[in-house]
Amino acid sequence: xxxxxxxxGEFFPVIGxxxxxxxxxxxxxxxPELLENGDRRNVLDHYRYWKVESIVADLDTKRHxxxxxxxxxxxxxxxxxxxxxxxxxxxxxxxxxxxRDWNKRGAMVTDRYLSVIHHPxxxxxxxxxxxxxxxxxxxxxxxxxxxxxxAQLPETCVLLFGQEGSGMSEEGIAxxxxxxxxxxxxxxxxxxxSAAGAIAMYHWALQHLPR
Length: 211
Fold this sequence. Notes:
The chain is of the alpha/beta class and about 210 residues long. It has two domains: about 1-60, no CATH class; about 65-210, SPOUT methyltransferase, trefoil knot domain (Alpha/beta knot), CATH 3.40.1280. About 25% of the residues lie in helices and about 15% in strands. The protein is built from six helices and seven strands. The protein has helices spanning about 30-35, 50-60, 80-90, 120-130, 170-175, 195-210, and strands spanning about 65-70, 95-100, 115-120, 135-140, 145, 155-160, 180. The chain has a seven-stranded parallel β-sheet, sandwiched between helices. Strand 1, helix 3 and strand 2 form a beta-alpha-beta unit. The longest helix is centred in the C-terminal third of the chain and has 16 residues, at about 195-210.
């Protein structure tokens, strides 16, 4: 088996497997090309050698009721990282609000394994949430924000995040019945947007996913 290589944006070797020994496993989920050449993707061992569409179909049977939304007005590198974390929590969908094109580098192709829904404006996003009975919860440290640490989040909801630096837009803030902030104890005014996304998703998971 060839030595593992360093993946883009990573500081550790990509864990993969080489060509599968014959006889090959049978089943429509398996990709003959991966069985032949090896599977170097960043996927769970359970999904080794599976076709992408088969992985998605399996994940669809156990999606969680959490949605993630990200405002996309600038070329924010953090969007991809938030999408990658959303994949790790197997959310129902990720919503991109604003520009359709977003920086996918940090996603490390994890966007292929979940639903990504685009909304041109905050108003379009709000309309979708109302029609699908998904309450919007903002995550940002703006005036009037409540503490996330003491919040009980609904099982079905969408967490809305703003841009790195500028935070949530005024339009985004206006459609949120409630906004939560993450307590900080140092000197910085704000933490990295992708880090805040991971903390918020984990807070939801502690309340609604089996341990």
